[in-house]
């Protein structure tokens, strides 16, 4: 019993050691995300505020396509946090979208290129100044609210600007009207991060401005590197896509009506083996071995008479004179003469009671020509 116990203890220790080494050597590393990504749980990510938005509101979604593909209409919002590599054409696209009655909320420490939206910023301190906790004031800010401000720039107080938040150096958040929509600019994107959102009064100062009567709230991830290219049909206008789709349906119905089939037609092996050339060769060999050339010729003549009954209305036992009259009325004199001569040779062979293989081959070829001639009528 002692040996068995020691064996089991050694086995358990080996298994635990194997699992521990596997955990240490193959431990998966946590994925690295860029800063300000809405689904990043890292200190510089925005997962906390994005999760809360999704719990409090319906229709919070990520946006991973160029801004020109944003859904048309009004009553939508796009939240953009420290976007990278925004071009002038993209700003024109987003401002046209805002003009139709949508809201754009931008968090950017050193903004530039928003002059068309009547938003500009200038330096209010030195670029190397340390972040400092400052009292924050504004129409929606309560008493005693503070925030850790990293930005050294402040918004220019233009006539079109509606100040939202400010400190002792100037305006750190403001809103302007663009058409039927608004553009809101915050100079404190770090207030949204998982590390800072609950520090000082950051959440209380930002949260009221993320509430609106929007049908959907988009979180821009396209300018963080997470991109989903639109389909090939997105480059064409909707009316053209609809017209092509309808044309395709009509084409399919037309092909179906015509009974077209697609792909090759495969002949079943059973047909090839049982009803193909092998069958014909076997029957021909049997007739040859049994010297049944006259019987084969009679069968061919019977088929020819059946064709004349179907095409010309002659009885299968019609006389040579009846067949000759019908042939001269429909065919040329040479063709009629050939048909009459063929039937006379067959009658002579039947009267003699025998037929050579040479005559069978020659008359069979003539019978093929006559039968083909009748089938075309």
> Which term fits the overall shape?
elongated
Main β sheet profile = 7 strands, mixed
Overall structural class, as computed from helix and strand content, comes to alpha/beta
Residue windows where pLDDT falls under 50 for at least 5 positions: none
Which series of helices and strands comes N to C?
HHEEHEEEEEEEEHEHHHHHHH
Strand order of the largest sheet: 1-11-2-3-10-9-8
* Contiguous helical run count: 11
Q: Termini distance?
A: 103 Å
Radius of gyration: 46 Å
The proportion of residues in beta strands is: 5-15%
Percent of residues in helices comes to: 40-55%
The count of DSSP E runs of length 2 or more, i.e. the number of strands, is 11
Give the integer mean of the pLDDT values: 83
General description of the model:
It is a single chain. By secondary structure, the protein is of the alpha/beta class. 43% of the residues lie in helices and 15% in strands. The protein is built from eleven helices and eleven strands. It has helices at residues 2-25, 47-56, 88-99, 202-206, 238-258, 269-275, 277-289, 293-312, 320-330, 333-352, 357-375, and strands at residues 60-63, 76-81, 103-107, 121-123, 132-135, 146-149, 153-155, 162-167, 170-178, 181-186, 216-220. The strands form three sheets. The chain has a seven-stranded mixed sheet with strand order 1-11-2-3-10-9-8, sandwiched between helices. Strands 4-7 form a two-stranded antiparallel ribbon. A hairpin with a 2-residue loop joins β9 and β10 (181-186). α8 (293-312) runs parallel beside α11. The longest helix is centred in the N-terminal third of the chain and has 24 residues, at 2-25. The chain is elongated, with a radius of gyration of 46 Å.
């Amino acid at each position: 019993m002692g040996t068995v116990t020691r064996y089991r203890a050694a086995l358990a220790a080996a298994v635990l050691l194997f699992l521990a080494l596997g955990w240490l050597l193959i431990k998966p590393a946590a994925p690295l995300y860029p800063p300000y990504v809405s689904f990043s749980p890292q200190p510089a990510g925005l997962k906390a505020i994005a999760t809360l938005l999704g719990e409090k509101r319906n229709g919070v979604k990520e946006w991973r396509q160029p801004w020109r593909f944003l859904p048309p209409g009004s009553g939508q919002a796009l939240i953009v946090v420290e976007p990278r590599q925004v071009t002038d054409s993209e700003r024109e696209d987003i401002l046209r979208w805002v003009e139709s009655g949508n809201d754009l909320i931008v968090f950017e420490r050193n903004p530039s290129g928003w002059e068309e939206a009547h938003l500009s910023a200038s330096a209010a301190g030195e670029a190397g100044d340390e972040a400092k906790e400052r009292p924050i004031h504004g129409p929606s800010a309560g008493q005693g609210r503070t925030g850790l401000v990293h930005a050294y720039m402040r918004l220019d107080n233009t006539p079109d600007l509606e100040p939202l938040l400010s400190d002792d150096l100037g305006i750190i958040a403001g809103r302007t009207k663009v058409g039927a929509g608004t553009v809101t600019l915050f100079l404190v994107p770090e207030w949204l991060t998982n590390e800072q959102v609950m520090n000082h009064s950051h959440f209380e100062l930002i949260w009221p401005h993320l509430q609106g009567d929007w049908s959907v709230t988009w979180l821009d991830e396209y300018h963080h590197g997470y991109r989903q290219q639109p389909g090939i049909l997105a480059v064409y206008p909707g009316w053209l896509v609809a017209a092509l789709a309808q044309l395709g349906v009509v084409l399919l119905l037309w092909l179906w009506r015509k009974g077209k089939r697609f792909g090759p037609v495969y002949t079943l092996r059973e047909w090839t083996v049982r009803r193909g050339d092998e069958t014909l060769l076997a029957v021909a060999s049997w007739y040859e071995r049994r010297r049944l050339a006259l019987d084969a010729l009679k069968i061919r003549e019977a088929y020819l008479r059946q064709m004349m009954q179907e095409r010309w209305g002659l009885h299968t036992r019609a006389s040579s004179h009846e067949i000759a009259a019908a042939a001269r009325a429909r065919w040329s004199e040479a063709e009629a003469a050939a048909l009459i001569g063929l039937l006379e040779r067959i009658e002579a062979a039947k009267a003699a009671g025998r037929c050579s293989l040479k005559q069978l081959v020659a008359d069979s070829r003539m019978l093929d020509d006559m039968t083909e001639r009748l089938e075309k009528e």
